[in-house]
């Protein structure tokens, strides 16, 4: 069910890099399929420009829902970058969003997945291991 207020205010989904090695997708409100496709295309361009990125943060603290099939689009994105991403974090206070981590763990067993309620904890977990492994990890630390 969509939230009409959110649609009227203009839902937001953006991609950014909170640290040099982390790609963050931040959603706010209800996210349509076309909005997610747009931000995944932007993310692809960012990844092409920044080969050092090897971790993903899905910031859904203000997420209010999404079109059917959006979860699958996220899984396809991760599968396409399976050799690149070592860790992915879901930032949420929502039990249904946290449960998506179980889907990711089942479909992408090579990906270390964490669920966090605080952004700084998620970013710290995503970047842990870079110093001790001399940069890019070959396995999740």
Backbone shape: globular
N- to C-terminal separation?
39 Å
By CATH, the architecture is named: 2-Layer Sandwich
User: For this structure, what is the CATH class?
Assistant: Alpha Beta
Output mean pLDDT.
86
As residue ranges, the low-confidence spans are 1-7, 131-141
Our count of domains comes out at: 1
Rg calc = 15 Å
Structural class: alpha/beta
Number of separate strands: 5
Report the CATH topology name.
Transcription Regulator spoIIAA
Portion of residues within helices: 25-40%
Largest sheet geometry:
5 strands, mixed
Name of the CATH superfamily: STAS domain
What does this structure look like?
The chain is an alpha/beta fold and 141 residues long. It has a single domain, classed as Transcription Regulator spoIIAA (2-Layer Sandwich), CATH 3.30.750.24. Helix content is 40%, strand content 28%. It is built from five helices and five strands, in the order αββαβαβαβα. The chain has helices at 4-9, 33-49, 70-80, 95-107, 119-127; strands at residues 12-19, 22-31, 55-66, 87-91, 112-116. Helix 3 links the parallel strand 3 and strand 4 (87-91). The N and C termini lie far apart (39 Å).
């Amino acid at each position: 069910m969509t939230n009409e207020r959110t649609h009227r205010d203009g839902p937001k989904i953006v991609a950014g890099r909170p640290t040099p090695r982390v790609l963050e997708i931040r959603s706010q409100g209800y996210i349509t399929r076309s909005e997610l496709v747009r931000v995944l295309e932007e993310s692809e361009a960012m990844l092409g420009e920044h080969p050092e990125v090897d971790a993903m943060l899905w910031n859904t603290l203000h997420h209010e829902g999404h079109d059917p099939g959006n979860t699958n689009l996220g899984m396809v994105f991760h599968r396409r970058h399976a050799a690149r991403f070592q860790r992915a974090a879901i930032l949420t206070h929502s039990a249904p969003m946290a449960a998506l981590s179980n889907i990711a763990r089942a479909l992408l067993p090579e990906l270390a997945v964490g669920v966090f309620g605080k952004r700084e904890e998620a970013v710290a977990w995503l970047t842990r291991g870079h110093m001790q492994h001399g940069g890019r990890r070959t396995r999740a630390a």
